[in-house]
Amino acid sequence: MGYFRPAIEAMTGYIPGEQPKPGTNIIKLNTNENPYPPSPKALEVLRSLDSEWLRRYPDPFAKEFCQAVSEVLGVPADWVLVGNGSDDVLNVLVRACAEGADRSVVYPMPTYVLYRTLAAMQPADVVEVPYGEEFQLPIEALVAAKGAITFIATPNSPSGHCVPLEDLRTLAQQVAGIVAIDEAYVDFAESSALPLLQEFENVILLRTLSKGYSLAGLRMGFALANPKLLTGLFKVKDSYNIDAIATAIGTAAMRDQSYKNACAEKVKRSRTQLSTDLKNLGFTVLPSHGNFVLATPPDGRAEFLQQALKQRGILLRYFKQPGLDDKLRITVGTDAQNQILIEAIVSLLNS
Ligand SMILES: *Cc1c(COP(=O)(O)O)cnc(C)c1O
């Protein structure tokens, strides 16, 4: 007998974007971190840490954080489930709801690769439905696939497009299973699917503090859903999946909406500028509602550019897969970082 279950033997592990050592002099535009520091209020909590928080087990439900979410988003506190990053919540959701052919995982493509990885581990069958030419949601095919979970990331990565609320509503009406709406990038978008929570018991929203709140290293994410949908997930999650420090810092960050919104506004302005600059260099750039853009370099020399820029200390994300292998996903940095990127591209394209 081998060490691993057949499903684990057969699967490919998720490959995260490169994470260079902190302090390395690198412009890191490959994993959609926020270029601005976390809220000063969150940092204040970090500096005032009490050792007692470490000695004792944390609150298994991070209730203090749920309360903050409740006040900020106007959702009851018992509609919130907190995770060690939203990846943890995604993991719990797949563990609790998907299995085999009868309880499959369905999503439009291209999208976040982790959905496939989590399904492969379970294992649960996967149905991948291509997006339309202009990223229209393929509602009919998604419904026909009858997933136990249908994942929709909006704004989507790597495309950056938003799925219209009406399409999400139609989907939630027509599928019997769960519609999991991954709003990792909602802080950079104009709208959210929050209104659907009250309308549909089968809708779950996933949020994270990694992108909008500049706290990717903290590992904090959460789900919003009807308590009926959350009950099964609470059985599956680790008792202490969110540590005491994350809970305290995350709560302060959640309560500081004005700081988060101000950073998001800066990112959005820079996104416009970066898109314009790239287009002026002959790139095709998709309109984006996230803190990144998906751009096709002239002559499709995406892999060359990614490699050459890496040698110059600038990291971008390249996906070697059909439909994406001529494109680069570029995180929006500060204006200064974006300017350095643009200058490096100019010199590479001229060489
Ligand atoms: C970044 C990202 C996540 C994961 O966020 P964490 O909270 O850091 O685990 C989830 N979904 C999408 C689409 C993302 O881009």
Please characterize this protein's 3D structure:
The protein is of the alpha/beta class. It folds into 2 domains: 6-37 and 262-350, Aspartate Aminotransferase, domain 1 (Alpha-Beta Complex), CATH 3.90.1150.10; 40-257, Aspartate Aminotransferase, domain 2 (3-Layer(aba) Sandwich). The protein contains 14 helices and 12 strands. It has helices at 6-10, 40-47, 52-55, 63-73, 86-97, 114-121, 139-144, 165-174, 195-199, 227-236, 244-255, 257-280, 302-311, 335-350; strands at 27-29, 80-83, 100-109, 124-130, 149-153, 178-182, 203-208, 221-225, 284-285, 292-296, 314-316, 328-331. It has a 7-stranded mixed sheet with strand order 2-8-7-6-5-3-4, with helices on both faces. Strands 9-10-12 form a 3-stranded antiparallel sheet. Helix 9 links the parallel strand 6 (178-182) and strand 7 (203-208). Helix 2 (40-47) packs antiparallel against helix 11, helix 5 packs across helix 10 (227-236) and helix 12 (257-280) packs parallel to helix 14. The protein is globular, with a radius of gyration of 20 Å. The mean pLDDT is 96. The protein binds pyridoxal-5'-phosphate. Pyridoxal-5'-phosphate binds at residues 32, 85-87, 112, 153, 157, 182, 184, 208, 210-211, 216, 221.
